[in-house]
Amino acid sequence: QVLSLPIVVIVHGNQDNNAKATVLWDNAFSEIDRVPFVVAERVSWEKMCDTLNLKFKAEVQTTKGLLKEHYFFLAQKIFNDHSASLEDFQSRSVSWAQFNKEILPGRGFTFWQWFDGVLDLTKRCLKSYWSDRLIIGFISKQYVCKLLSTEPDGTFLLRFSDSEIGGVTIAHVIRGKDGSSQVENIQPFSAKDLSIRSLGDRIRDLGQLRNLYPNIPKDQAFGSHYNKEQTGKD
């Protein structure tokens, strides 16, 4: 006899996401010579980071993986802790419940359901933007405000939506005549939105966006992603 790779039987497409979580956890964290079906209940955060990075690169089919600051944001999210430092998180362990059982505070979904939505969106609509490092993506709203508040009017960056599964939003700074700054977040775009009009073209459309953070003119950053506009009757 030989142990197969993990298999999950589902009866409906809405169970697909949870099945993927079970297979991923089993593949990544079970021991080779284990008793069948016995899987670790907790794993180190470091191991989890490696797994999420491998999964992201394989799923999106990109060579550009997750960065240290991305892991920091993901740790804050999964542990619901915004006071710990990057080093504090490295010594922690994450449980299966935190990964895909417990609903994130103030949301209607688990950490994995949110992360899987990001994977799907990036794979379908944002692969080239991610590979060109035009999307910071994994960054909190609060940290975006801190980054952009001192920047010139029209500076913007791209982040994955916290409130919706599979959404990307544009945060940009607006400066008043008195010099005060305000950071606005545009309603997140879903895969359906981006299949109608690409992210590059949407950024071109929005006149209030000028420079991609820290200071790259938007046409220079996104020019290669613009589609040629149809003219005439179209």
UniProtKB/TrEMBL annotation:
It is found in: Cytoplasm; Nucleus. GO terms for biological process: cell surface receptor signaling pathway. One of its GO terms (cellular component) is nucleus. PROSITE patterns: SH2 (PS50001). Keywords: Activator, Cytoplasm, DNA-binding, Nucleus, Phosphoprotein, SH2 domain, Transcription, Transcription regulation. InterPro entries: p53-like_TF_DNA-bd_sf, SH2, SH2_dom_sf, STAT, STAT_linker. GO terms for molecular function: DNA binding; DNA-binding transcription factor activity. Residues 114-213 form the SH2 domain. The keyword Phosphoprotein applies. Belongs to the transcription factor STAT family. This is STAT6 protein. The lineage of its organism: Eukaryota, Metazoa, Chordata, Craniata, Vertebrata. The gene is Stat6_1.
